[in-house]
Amino acid sequence: MFEVASRSPRQWAASVILGFAETTNLSIAGRRFDVRGAGPNSEALVALLTAIGARRVAAGETPDYLFVSGEGGTPLLPRDLDALAPDPDRPLVLVDATPDGTAVADDSARADQLRAGVRATSLPHVVVVRLDDTRHGPHESAAADRIAWARRFMPASARLAAQLAEDGTVRGVRIGVSMVLEPKTAVLALMLRDAGAEVAVFSHPDETDDDVADALREAGLRVHARAAAGPDEHRALAMAFLEERPAVLVDDGSHVIRLAHEAAPRLLDGMIGAAEETTSGLRPLRAMAAEGLLRIPVVAVNDARSKTLFDNRYGTGQSCLFTILGLTGLDLFGAAVVVAGYGPVGEGVARHARALGAAVVVAEPDPVRALAASYDGFRVSRLVEAVAAADLVVSATGVRDTIGLDVLRACPPSAVVAVAGGVPQEVAVDDALAAGATREVIGWKRERIAFPGGTSVELLDGGGCINVTAGEGNPIEIMDLSFAVQLSAIRHLVETAGTLTPGVHPLPAAADDAVAAQALAAAGLRIDDAAAPAAPVPLWPRFGSIA
Asked: What SS3 class is residue 208?
């Protein structure tokens, strides 16, 4: 990202946070933290964590994350690390960010690698120590270790899965999980298996971690996915997954739901329904429903407040931007960042970029959302005009050709272009190639798109969903909420089997609230009871009847 010797406190704080996120796959926003150590570096770290959305603990509170800063040389923490984590059911993660890794007095308590298989981080000397996992013992493989790590930070999903197991709601039910295949999804599949369901798993090759797939196979699940699968094998795997005849489909992008309707409608017979995770997946399903083509009920998981307000804004915002920075080494302080689209994903990207010091411009054709961006303190502009001085352009619309030819040609040669979330050709790569552009690989998941005449941009991951295909997806705690919503949707579908009509249905508000309540309980947070509905107020309280 920048030379260590020339780091300012702000740059140092950014590198610590990026290294922490890359190493742990944990969220910053919504978490409680503390910082041990004094000086400009510590002050910058507190300021940046707070700007992203974390909260420094008050006296007597136990943090989720404890960052140790300082000049090193003198241990800043006691030898008895267990005293820092009094609640065995709440993990405490310690980040040793001292220059020489001397925050912890006892070297035996330190772990130089948090999870096997994690790539090098932005700041290699950041060391994360698990204070609660020693009781679990070693795991069979690197993938099993990563899955176990994810499970530690998914308490809301664990609570709802335990309820499903206790009341037997999904016992014997065939459930197909079609999502990005990485450790968090593996935890969801295993929770459903442990609740008594018969689980099969499918994933797109670009979204498949083969080690995780193998770990699930070893656990007895049927997995239809391979990272190196070509188009024909990929389709064959998808059809084999559908031939498992799942009663409930858990989908991401509605790819399998639509495939079943187009290629194997007979497999829809007897299907209870599906739960769809994403905005881009719900759009075509609603179009199918409007035309009378959707044959099963689908619960709009994406629209649940416990999903959209957190997954899209905080999860995708953090993971996409941090993945971009990890790939490119960009320093956002003073950089010009353009965000196309100001739905929840665009809002999250814009907020995280601003927290890291960027000057953010939002391009949004919806007048209400554009006005909201202005009220949130962002400059609003037309996209083709905004990108002319951009260092980074992020599309967050989920709409094809958002970054069209005119936008690509308007970018300066140094601009980086990426997609947060997304659909195929959200960046008009095919149109660019048809117009004579060339592609040159310049690094892992990085390429130069050059047009005749000298105009060029750096495109990340071919315009793919950057946090999934080049990163490890959304942070674990965020996906805990999303998968808890999925578990609630599965319960709703099974309990209402045969009564929901074909179409797109909301998750009942009570189920949505229950997810948030479980997350609050797991965090030890208490809120007031909801007030009883107030008595109706007369329409004309001052003037009486107008009859």
From this structure: strand
Please report where in the chains the tokens 């490890």 appear, as a residue: 472
DSSP state for residue 411 in the 8-state scheme:
S
Q: How far is CA 158 from the centre of its chain?
A: 18
Does residue 545 register a pLDDT over 60? no
Give burial (CB, 10 Å; 0-12/13-18/19+) of 503. middle
Beta partners for 503? 297
Closest CA relative to residue 4, chosen from 128, 121, 123: 123
Q: Does this model's pTM top 0.85?
A: yes
DSSP 312: I
Q: Give one DSSP letter per residue of 265-308, joined into a string.
A: GGGGTT--EEEE--HHHHHHHHHHHHTT---SEEEEGGGSHHHI
Distance separating alpha carbons of residues 416 and 360, to the nearest angstrom: 14
Cβ atoms of residues 515 and 489 within 8 Å: no
Distance CA 308, CA 469 (A): 21
**Dihedrals φ, ψ of 67, to 5°?**
-95, 130
CB 201 within 8 A of CB 189: yes
Strand 359-363 versus strand 248-251 pairing type: unpaired
In which residue are the tokens 């971690």 written?
Answer: 209
Q: In this structure, what token pair is assigned to residue 86?
A: 């009094």
Phi then psi dihedrals of residue 68, to 5 deg: -115, 115
Q: Nearest CA to 369 among 399, 342, 398, 337?
A: 342
- pLDDT, residue 5, reads 45
Instruction: Pull the structure tokens for residue 484.
Output: 């808890």
Per-residue pLDDT reduced to its tens digit, 258-289: 999 999 999 999 999 999 999 989 999 999 99
* Residue 199: φ, ψ to 5°: -110, 130
What is the helix (H) or strand (E) element at residue 68, kind and residue range?
Answer: strand 65-68
Angle (deg, nearest 10), helices 344-355 and 317-328: 50
User: ∠ CA(27), CA(31), CA(32), 5° rounding?
Assistant: 145
Residues with Cβ within 8 Å of 304's Cβ and at least 6 positions away in sequence, in order, are: 485, 488, 489, 506, 507, 511, 512, 515
Share of the chain above pLDDT 70, in %: 85
* Secondary structure element (H or E) that encloses residue 456, with its range: strand 456-460
CA–CA separation, 518 and 525 (whole Å): 10
